[in-house]
Structures are given as C-alpha cells and as structure tokens.
Amino acid sequence: xxxxxxxxxxxxxxxxxxxxxxxxxxxxxxxxxxxxxxxxxxxxxxxxxxxxxxxxxxxxxxxxxxxxxxxxxxxxxxxxxxxxxxxxxxxxxxxxxxxxxxxxxxxxxxxxxxxxxxxxxxxxxxxxxxxxxxxxxxxxxxxxxxxxxxxxxxxxxxxxxxxxxxxxxxxxxxxxxxxxxxxxxxxxxxxxxxxxxxxxxxxxxxxxxxxxxxxxxxxxxxxxxxxxxxxxxxxxxxxxxxxxxxxxxxxxxxxxxxxxxxxxxxxxxxxxxxxxx
Length: 277
Fold this sequence. Notes:
It is a single chain. This protein is α/β, with parallel strands linked by helices. Helices cover 21% and strands 27% of the residues. It has helices spanning 52-57, 77-85, 98-109, 165-171, 178-185, 204-213, 264-270; strands at 12-13, 28-33, 38-43, 67-71, 90-95, 120-124, 145-150, 189-200, 216-227, 234-241, 248-249, 253-256. Strands 4, 5, 6, 7, 8, 9, 10, 11 and 12 form a nine-stranded mixed sheet that branches. A three-stranded antiparallel sheet has the order 1-2-3. Strand 9 and strand 10 (234-241) form a beta hairpin. Helix 5 runs parallel beside helix 6. The longest helix is centred in the middle third of the chain and has 12 residues, at 98-109.
C-alpha cells in the first residue's frame, strides 16, 4: 500500500457504471487503469494510488500459470496491471488495512480476466509478520511463490506524520521498515524466483545489502528519472533467490517530458500496460 509523497495518478474517470453486485460508497472514487482496460476504485481522500504499483507490475517476469505474492497491495493496482499484461498469471495480495482489503477484493471481482487460470485474492496481514496459513495458498508444495513484489513504506518515522491514518500506514516506517519487509519476503519465494521492490533511492544500498544477506543475488537496479537530467528519487530493485550473477545497473525510464507530459516510453507502460523497456 506504499506510495510516493506525491500521488501522480494515471487513473482516468470511469464513464460506465459498475457491473458487479457491489457499488463504491460515497467515500470512494471509481476510475480506470491502463487507459480504461481496468476498472479501479480507490478512496477519495487520504492514501491514493500513485505510479509505483503500475511500474512495479511492469517489471515482473511472470509467465502464465505462475503465482505472484504482493505485500502491501493496497487496492490491488499492481496485481491487476500484472494480470492484464500476463495471461494466466495469478496473485495474492497482503494488506494491513481492513477497509482497503475490502476495496481490493471489490476491484479483483470487478475485473474478470478471460484466462481461467487467473485468480486474484487478498489477505489481511501486517508486514513484516506474514501468517503461516498463507503457505496453504501458495502454488507449490513448499509453500512458496514464483515471484514476490512490494512497494514498502520508506518515509522517515521522524518526519511530520500524515493526519490520515491510512496514509500513515502506507508510507511511514514508524511501525515497520523496508529491510524487515525484504527479509520476510525472501522466505516466501521459490529458488530462482524474483523479488521486486520499488523504493526511494535513499535506501537502495540497504535494500541491496539485505537481499544479499538473505540469499538473494543477481541484483538489478532500475532508476526512474522524473525528467531528463534530473536525479532519480525512485528506483526498482530486483533480485533472484539464489542468484549468482553480477550486479547490473539498468538504463532506467524517464517519466516526464520538460512540459510535464509523460514520455512516450512511460506512456507505453502506464497507459498500454507494456513491460518496462
């Protein structure tokens, strides 16, 4: 459920009514993701979905028939975008806030996918404590998943807290920290599977070190440049459980033109749902 300080949202207003049996309340706003391909409801106030889950989903090298675990899934944007790109992929989201769990379940129900193998669900859990019962929902006998992903809280606990409780939960490290999330999730991915995190560049070094300490290597760093020539504030870190390859720094993605419009490359990811270049 984590996000950036400023929610730059690729949502578009929804022009047609919901078709599921439940409708959003007056506290919720319904829109779309991926240029109208996905129906998406989120809260009108407080924490709002930003670009991070869409970008993160575009980095997961999942294939049909595989299952992805997302920690801090919020209202489900990441798993929805992944399922829209990869036919037959399934996912389970972990989310601490009970109301957001219900919202994610609504969004999953409201977006049926044509491939019968696709199944998305959400479980309430407060990271880094992951309920052991989740092992029974994993696709493999050892209770692990093919891939895991997360946008963990990374805003300093010493900063001014948000007055909104849901936003504090999503962003602040007061009750958990990214390294604890990484350590916990490393125990839920299959050998050879990927772990993907989108975080602040300020903690990228600690994230990489934590991955290595937990048996994850072949680390790749993928920066997101706000504009050409600007310093990256967000970075995607991806590792392989048991990976032995060298560290790789990827070219990254420039998000905006000088006039504030999304770049063509960013549009292909955020609007068209393509994988990261």
